[in-house]
Amino acid sequence: MSEVLTLNRWPVKSLRGEQLSAARFDERGVAGDRAYALLDERPNRAGNILTVRQNQTLLSWSASYGDLPEPTGPPTLNGPDDQRFSWDDPKLADVLEQSLDIPVSLRAADGQQDRGPTVLVTFESSLRGLSEEMGAEVDLRRFRTNLHVDADLPPFAEQDWEAGATITAGEVELAVAGEHAGPCIRCAVPSWDADGRERWRELQTHLIQRHENKFGVIMRVTRPGTVNVGDAVRAG
C-alpha cells in the first residue's frame, strides 16, 4: 500500500528535530520547519547560519514544538546533559556558546532559513535500496527528510524527476516547481550519524559515485492541508 510512513520537522536548522503524527503543509513548506537558526558570530563568519558542516556538536541538541500539526509558539531546545530551554530564554545563547565552543546568536524567521518554502520528500524503496548497496542499514534521520513515503516506485526513481512531477499525500499535493526544487543534491551532513558522534564517509562517497550525490527530492506545496501518518500516497 502506498502511504505516508513518517513525518519530520526540524524547528532549528541543523539541530535534531521531531517526528510527528500529523503536519500542516502550506506556502511555507512544513509549518515551523527550519524557522529558527543559530548564527555563527566568530569574526571571520559573523552573521552566517551555523550548520553541522561547521560544528557537529549541533547534533547533540534537539528542538521541538510538541506533536502539533502547526506550532503555536517558539520551540523548546534540549541539550546533551538533559538541559531544557525555551527559545526565548535569555540564557540560551550563552549556554549554546559554552556547548558549541563558539559565539552564537539566535535568529527567527517566518519560514525556512535555507532553501525557501520547500519540502524534502524521501522514498522507502530508495532507502531500502541504499541500505542494500551499503550492506548496512542506513538511518533515515541522516537525510533530514520532512515526508517519507512508500509510493510503489522502484528504488531511486525520483532521481530523474523533472519539473512538473507531483505527489499527493492525503489532502496535500506537492510538485517539483520553482527555485531549488528537484532531486536533492546532498552535502556532507548525511555522512554524520543522527547524534553527530561518528562519521560514515563511505556513505557520502557511495552517493557521489553511484547516485550523482542525490537522495530524495525537493518539492513545493501546490495544494495545502494537513498530512497524517498512514495517509494514502499517489505519485505521478
UniProtKB/TrEMBL annotation:
UniProt-recorded name of the protein: MOSC domain-containing protein
Signal peptide extent: none
Residue span(s) of domain MOSC: 93-236
Entries under Pfam families matching the protein: MOSC, MOSC_N
GO molecular function: catalytic activity; molybdenum ion binding; pyridoxal phosphate binding
Top-level taxonomic group: Bacteria
